[in-house]
Amino acid sequence: MSVARALLALGAALATPACAAPATVQPTDPRSPLVLQRVIDLPGVKGRIDHLAVDLERRRLYVAEYGNGSVEEIDLGAGRVLGRIAGLHEPQGVAYLPKQREIVVACGDGSVRFYADADRHEVARIELGDDADNIRIDQRNGHLIVGYV
Fold first, then answer.
1. What is the pLDDT of residues 13-31, one digit of tens each?
2. Domains and CATH numbers, the chain
3. Which residue positions does the secretion signal occupy (predicted)?
């Protein structure tokens, strides 16, 4: 297939109704694909939050609190905050490495920081440059992928 034909096919696919904006429903609507299970307060958190990561085995949620300069650890079973990693510069990306039992945080100052999940103390740091952001784990090999400027 030529490049022009491939682009035309792509354009036709994007113009189909399947690409139309999804319907908006309220959380209380029984047709909603999401169901509110619980509200967990984050006391003392100011500003916006950014990315989330989960430790499925221990049922922990990690919340990058960009405006607060912190990452919150939440016990999903108990519905409460367990602790906080504070003093971060614009924490954006967050990931959990189950084999290493580490929380990884990408920050706006370009640092990627690694914390032990047992007590949230810093165990390593990599300086990448400005604005480290998204973090993904390649499930095929466990490699950590960090987007930064």
1. 444 455 566 678 887 788 8
2. 46-148 (2.130.10.10)
3. 1-20
Q: How many CA atoms lie within 13 A of 108 on its CB side?
A: 15
Residue (of 76, 73, 48, 51) closest to 64 by Cα position? 51
Which residue, among 55, 53, 90, 60, has the nearest Cα to 78 in the 3D structure?
Answer: 60
| Strand-strand pairing, 132-137 and 52-55 | unpaired
Q: CA neighbours within 13 Å on the CB side: how many for 75? A: 7
Q: How far apart are CA 95 and CA 20, in angstroms?
A: 32
CA–CA separation, 119 vs 9, rounded Å? 53
Per-residue pLDDT of the chain (149 residues; tens, 9 = 90+): 433 333 333 334 444 455 566 678 887 788 888 888 888 999 889 989 989 999 999 999 999 999 999 999 999 999 999 999 999 999 999 999 999 999 999 999 999 999 999 999 999 999 998 888 899 999 899 899 999 87
Question: Distance between CA atoms of 73 and 140, rounded to whole angstroms?
Answer: 26
What pTM was estimated for this model as a whole? 0.79
Residue type, 87: G
93 C-beta neighbours (distance < 10 Å), count: 23
